[in-house]
Design goal:
It comes from Tulasnella calospora MUT 4182. By secondary structure, the protein is α/β, with parallel strands linked by helices. The protein folds into two domains: about 325 residues, 4-Layer Sandwich (Purple Acid Phosphatase, chain A, domain 2), CATH 3.60.21.10; about 210 residues, 5'-nucleotidase,  domain 2.
């Protein structure tokens, strides 16, 4: 072990917001431009080196990223992650790993995002069974020449979060992290092979307990522990937890308190693990000292020591002027997209605070019904069906205005749904549901944010009763058709679907009504309830939910934010509308073409124009019919369509242009809103009596 090598590394993970954010515990703000300037200053301090493969001059170190960048954030709800491509291209990581939230808008869209990145993306332990390799656009590994050695980098993800990704491609097969780590170690370290790597680094997107288990399995330990004869990896660089953590094999790390215990890391008995916080607030820089492994070892180099620093971004730090300019252009494009219509409402969408915080509201019903089916795929994968209900609070609905009847813009949706806490799923028994709802109704008539919004349940209460004694009963919701028989809930309308021609009066062909009563006794049936993480952690009077367990892995790390869910739903349904309109037009054209020729002269221009108008009207009638069927099947299909199909043809935000940096150039994929107005989603949210107060007169 005579030869010593020093390798420079920088690591970060789980970054989302590009707009200014408050420093926790202060009124000061920081943003990504300060993070970028710090990263550049560290990288510029490294010496230059030339690679032997292409004689390219590069900084003699590596910048590593461990996943989650394209979602979630308010901006991502608008751009579907496209605005982060030029930001990451400016940050210039050498290699990145995909995280769970990078799949929030589906693999097909993720492929377009990574295709425009100027750096490679990894996903080593997911196999596309159609091709036998990694998913298209992603790599199993990358090899770099730095510090006079060859460094292999692989990317491993845990199995748990894959089940939470809606519309995960069925041909994407998970392979155990430890098995893939050993397999790639053998391939990359082979002294007779192509790569001859001296060192292997693993990027991971996994919980800290899984990182610790993996580090033990793959021998991510210092040289003194003598794992040199075993294949594996040398250091793990993790994401997903949003924690800042330095493994116990490292003893020298500026700005890190080794004495502070980390929940979930108790089994770390001397491992080389680095997890670097979150959201452009934290950055890790380090030097790794390497020594030669003994003759005949499986590994060529061993880690003698790691010394590093926890950089915390502060408001006093300088900013990157180049990234400032990029963001200025991108955020202007976001602002322009906010003006675009995304649906047409036939009824008022009343979001006034005094309304949504004191009684059942049509807007709350609409959004809650969409949320109810958001995670159906992930929950059904466990064999237990979709969610049973939704419980959110009136304070979720903002805007304090009335929207519609008429066009509702993307900006309106973002104004109504501004919060960035994820939507999660918890298991709630009847007693807990009663307690939570009693608390939610206890402060009425005060206009407090805790006032409940529900879906999947029918609640009757009496505001004349004393607080915490106001609920008359709670029932599971079932759907009846016009004859009074129970309907299949998959086909029944949950947002009051059918409308008479030429009027905005809702006509319910399927009527929601009371099903089985929810028991007040503790320990009974568990309901899968969709709610906000904010409420699941006991805020705003919902202390009763604090001890409820998450279902299907849909927790704060895996849940999506509400604005993104509603955006996906509207976008997917608009895409379906367009296909329906095209099909209707083609059918009309085919019928016209099939009429026998009678020898009469061709249609006049006026008659031809009238025929085209009829085709267009036929398409719009189909759209209106499909749009208004906001039932479980349509909501789920709309969400699934967005996650499995390319949406740029109906997206009001020009993602292709944004991925190139925005501005006036590259407008080939821009959407002309005048062309898409005809296939806008038609909605008609109404109050259906799901939260009936006997203490006030019916309106």
């Amino acid at each position: 072990m005579s030869s010593s090598t020093i390798l420079n590394l920088v690591h970060f993970n789980d970054v989302y917001r590009v707009t200014p954010q408050k420093v926790p515990g202060t009124s000061k703000k920081i943003d990504v431009t300060q993070f970028a300037e710090l990263l550049d200053s560290i990288r510029n301090s490294w010496p230059k080196t030339s690679t032997t493969t292409d004689a390219k001059t590069v900084e003699d170190g590596l910048v590593l990223f461990s996943g989650d960048v394209f979602s979630p954030s308010i901006e991502s709800s608008v751009t579907r992650g496209s605005h982060m491509v030029p930001v990451m291209n400016e940050l210039r990581p050498d290699v990145s790993l995909t995280g769970n939230h990078d799949f929030d808008f589906g693999y097909h869209h993720l492929y377009k995002l990574i295709e425009d990145c100027k750096f490679p993306w990894l996903l080593s332990n997911i196999k596309d069974t159609d091709t036998g390799g990694p998913p298209q656009g992603l790599s199993r590994f990358k090899v770099f020449e730095r510090a006079g050695i060859r460094v292999g980098v692989i990317g491993l993800v845990e199995k748990e979060w894959i089940a939470t990704v809606n519309s995960w491609p069925p041909n994407f097969q998970y392979q155990p992290m430890d098995q893939v780590g050993v397999e790639l170690s053998k391939l990359l370290r082979d002294p007779e092979g192509e790569y001859k790597c001296d060192l292997i680094l693993a990027l991971t997107h996994a919980r800290i307990p899984n990182d610790i288990t993996l580090a033990k399995q793959l021998g991510a330990v210092p040289a003194s522990d003598q794992r040199c004869h075993e294949h594996g990896v040398d250091i793990l660089f993790g994401g997903h937890d949003h924690m800042y953590y330095i493994g116990k094999a490292i003893s020298e790390w500026e700005g890190y308190n080794f004495g502070e215990p980390q929940l979930g890391a108790e089994a770390d008995d001397g491992l080389l693990i680095i997890k670097s916080g979150t959201d452009f607030r934290d950055l890790s820089s380090m030097t790794v000292e390497l020594v030669d492994a003994p003759e005949g070892s499986a590994r060529r180099k061993l880690v003698k020591s790691v010394k590093g620093k926890h950089h915390i971004i502060s408001s006093e730090m300088p900013s990157s002027e180049s990234l400032k300019q990029i963001l200025s252009t991108l955020l202007k494009d976001v602002g322009s997209a906010l003006k675009a219509p995304v649906c047409r409402s036939l009824t008022e969408v009343d979001c006034k605070s005094g309304y949504v915080r004191t009684e059942e509201s049509a807007s709350g019903n609409w959004f809650a019904d969409v949320l109810k089916h958001t995670y159906d795929d992930a929950l059904c994968a466990e064999g237990n069906g979709g969610a049973d209900g939704v419980l959110i609070c009136g304070g979720t609905i903002r805007g304090d205005s009335v929207y519609g009847p008429g066009l509702i813009t993307l900006g309106d949706i973002m104004e109504i749904l501004p919060f960035e806490d994820p939507i999660v799923v918890i298991a709630v028994d009847g007693a807990t549901l009663y307690t939570a709802l009693e608390s939610a109704l206890s402060t009425w008539p005060a206009q407090e944010g805790r006032f409940p919004i529900v879906s999947g349940f029918r609640v009757e209460w009496d505001s004349r009763r004393p607080p915490n004694q106001r609920i008359v009963g709670i029932w599971e919701e079932r759907i009846e058709n016009e004859s009074g028989a129970e309907s299949d809930s998959d086909d029944a309308a949950s947002i009051h679907s059918e409308h008479t021609s030429g009027t905005s009066t809702p006509v319910q062909k399927h009527k929601p009504c009371k099903g089985d009563e929810v028991s007040r006794e503790p320990g009974g049936k568990l309901y899968k309830v969709v709610t906000r993480y904010y409420m699941a952690t006991g805020h705003d009077g919902y202390e009763a939910l604090k001890d409820c367990k998450y279902v299907g892995g849909i927790d704060d790390e895996h849940g999506q934010i509400m604005s993104a869910i509603v955006r996906k739903y509207l976008l997917g349904l608009q895409y379906v509308n367009r296909l329906k309109a095209i099909a209707a037009k083609r059918k009309a054209e085919a019928a016209d073409a099939s009429r026998p020729s009678d020898g009469k002269p061709p249609l006049s221009q006026h008659a031809s124009d009238r025929a085209k108008a009829r085709w267009k009207d036929a398409g719009r009638r189909v759209i209106a019919r499909v749009s208004r069927r906001h039932n479980r099947t349509n909501i789920n299909n709309a969400l699934k369509t967005t996650e499995t199909t390319e949406m740029s043809s109906v997206d009001c935000f020009d993602g292709a242009r944004a991925r190139k940096g925005g501005g006036e150039a590259n407008r080939d994929d821009a959407v002309d809103n005048t062309e898409t107005k005809g296939d806008l989603v038609v909605v008609a949210p109404v109050v259906d009596g799901r939260l009936k107060n006997f203490g006030v007169e019916d309106k």
